[in-house]
Specification:
- By secondary structure, this protein is mainly alpha-helical.
- The chain has one domain.
- Helices cover 62% and strands 0% of the residues.
- It has five helices and no strands.
- Helix 1 packs parallel to helix 3 and helix 3 packs antiparallel against helix 4.
- The chain is elongated.
- About 26% of the residues have low confidence.
Length: 149
C-alpha cells in the first residue's frame, strides 16, 4: 500500500508540474519566456531527484519513476545545458515542442507503471496512455518537421 501511495504521489506531482504548461494563458513565446517565474528558468542539473518534496526513492519502482520524471526536468530545447528554454520565436513550434516533451515523459511514467504496478485499473490506464502517447508523439514529430521548413 505504501509503495503504491508513493508512486501515486510522484505521478501526481509530475502531472501537476507538466500540466502547468498546458494552462498557461496564450502569449507569444517571447512574452512567455520573459514573464516566466525565475523558478521555471532555474538550471536543473544540480537538483537531486531523491530529495525535497518528493522524498527519498527507496524501492526500484520509486527510483524508476523518479528517473522517468527526471527525463522531463528542464526542457528538450535547452540552450547549452543552462536549463533555460531556447524559444524559437514561433509559438506553434514552441507549443508542439513542449507537447512532445510532455508526451515523452507521460510515456516513460506509464512504462514504469507497467513494469512495477500491480493494480489492474492503474495498469489499464498505463496501457492506454502508452497507446495514446505513442500515437501523439508520431503526430507531433510530423508537425515539428513541417514547422522547421
Amino acid at each position: 500500500m505504501m509503495n503504491t501511495l508513493s508512486l501515486q504521489r510522484v505521478a501526481f506531482a509530475a502531472v501537476l508540474a507538466l500540466g502547468a504548461i498546458a494552462v498557461t494563458p496564450p502569449q507569444t513565446s517571447r512574452e512567455l519566456a520573459q514573464s516566466a517565474p525565475a523558478a521555471t528558468m532555474m538550471p536543473m542539473s544540480g537538483m537531486q531527484m531523491g530529495s525535497g518534496m518528493m522524498g527519498s526513492a527507496k524501492t526500484p519502482a520509486e527510483r524508476a519513476m523518479l528517473e522517468a520524471m527526471k527525463s522531463g526536468m528542464g526542457h528538450p530545447a535547452q540552450m547549452g545545458g543552462t536549463g533555460a528554454m531556447a524559444w524559437s520565436g514561433n509559438p506553434d513550434l514552441d507549443y508542439v515542442t513542449m507537447a512532445l516533451h510532455h508526451a515523452n515523459v507521460s510515456l516513460a511514467i506509464a512504462k514504469v507503471e507497467l513494469t512495477y504496478g500491480k493494480d489492474p485499473a492503474a495498469r489499464a490506464i498505463a496501457e492506454s496512455t502508452i497507446a495514446e502517447q505513442t500515437a501523439r508523439i508520431e503526430k507531433l514529430k510530423a508537425i515539428v518537421a513541417t514547422l522547421h521548413h
